[in-house]
Specification:
elongated, about 150 residues, mainly alpha
């Protein structure tokens, strides 16, 4: 068994993270789509498109948030060093973006809407499941992608 070089380890960790983020977000999107009005008003094809579209957006959010976190804390030695700082920063960026995006798309643009079943954060009105999504899915992805040692 060979030990990967630092750049190889960085990229392997990055791609493992994105793989888990993609799968985790796909499963999450499928699980919480009934909390949106499209579940009642959309056709099967529209719902499937929304799930795929949102999952692709989730992967983009994750990659961008991770890139920003790496630029701030992971320039040298990541993932061997600053793994936790990068993970926490990435999650904070993703949650912040999600709160903004949900507000913009639900309240301002009316691009989508919550059903009454959607639990909401009382001080923001943002759906709870999108916020939890950006805590649990990346946390699981960082756990799984972390290099041994």
């Amino acid at each position: 068994m060979t030990i990967p070089t630092a750049p190889a380890l960085k990229w392997r960790t990055f791609w493992r993270f994105l793989l888990v983020v993609a799968v985790g977000n796909l499963l999450w999107e499928i699980a919480h789509v009934p909390l949106y009005t499209i579940w009642l008003s959309g056709s099967g094809a529209e719902i499937a498109y929304a799930v795929v579209h949102c999952t692709a957006g989730d992967v983009l959010i994750a990659a961008t948030s991770l890139g920003l976190a790496l630029a701030l804390f992971g320039r040298t030695g990541w993932p061997a060093r600053a793994y936790g700082a990068v993970a926490l920063t990435m999650i904070l960026f993703a949650v912040s973006y999600t709160v903004f995006s949900e507000w913009l798309n639900v309240e301002v643009r009316a691009a989508w809407a919550y059903r009454d079943l959607m639990p909401r954060l009382p001080w923001l009105g943002t759906g709870l499941t999108p916020v939890l999504q950006w805590i649990f899915v990346p946390a699981a992805a960082f756990w799984w992608a972390r290099p041994p040692g």
